[in-house]
Amino acid sequence: MDYAALINRLSRRGLFRIKPGLDRVRQVLADLGHPQDAVPSIHIAGTNGKGSVAASLESVLRHAGLRTGLYTSPHLRDVRERIQIDRQPISLSAFRTTAQALFNAERRTGITLTYFEFLTVMAFLTFERQAVDVAIVETGMGGRWDATNVLAHPALTVITSIGFDHVQWLGKSETAIAREKAGIIKPGSPLVSGARGHAAGVITTTARREGAFLRQIDRDFQVHVDTISWVRGSQQVRYRTRSQEQIVSSNLLGRHQADNIALVVAGLDVLKEKWNIPAQAIQDGLAGMKWPGRFQLWPSAAQPRSAPMPIGSSYVQCLAREVCRREKRPPRCNNVPTCTS
Description:
UDP-N-acetylmuramoyl-L-alanine:D-glutamate ligase, 2 domains
């Protein structure tokens, strides 16, 4: 089957079709030999920022010498962007081969996965076959019933900021949504949380109940934006705990991204107990990380010397407007454009 025909076959499953529950995914994974348990994992949930955190962690760990697997969604141009090895989308041949193995597993089990479930299982199987050192896995929606929530013992769990998203599935209050996101918290797995307000209370209660060691933003670590340059597209962030302080640079812009950078640094403090992560890898990994379409600065052809224009995905349009409100002098934010995948 050629690639175009394969994508068409997958798309017929419905890109946004949702079937709550994990039994289907678990049965297919069992048929394939439980590939999700083959490599250490990092599991990330939240309303905004989880993709930025995932990509930043991947970049640092790769700079530290680890072979990385990255699973995120959605994609911008090609579905293979969702499954990456050392920050490169899997090859056409690997995608076809892995997809065929999964079609065979579906036939053996009599199960037809949804589009997202299929790609999630593909990611786990790819990471096992590619023998990655660590898999960084972003949830698609929520947490408790998300197809990625089959990771039994993550090396690290991260929950980013929590707000109102997918309310028809996750609940109509911040507390209800937080409960769904908290579903990825696992007994004994360390947790870093960027939730605030009522959501933070839900995360703290769940972590205590599950016996997960929690590092909470504003309580266990703080973050402050030292400098930000909209023209150069970089900012310096000061990360502080009771025992240390460090300044890191990143091309993720805005105060909301400062929180995400802090979550990354806090998570790396935990992961240092498992892997050797030099300080230089943290600096280089954060400074060199690329994450297109997430409040990305786009040069203006009409005004090449002016501050670049920020663009972002339609999903974060409301966030972009909020960023423009919070920043003291943001560039050209009266009409924030969007791009969609």
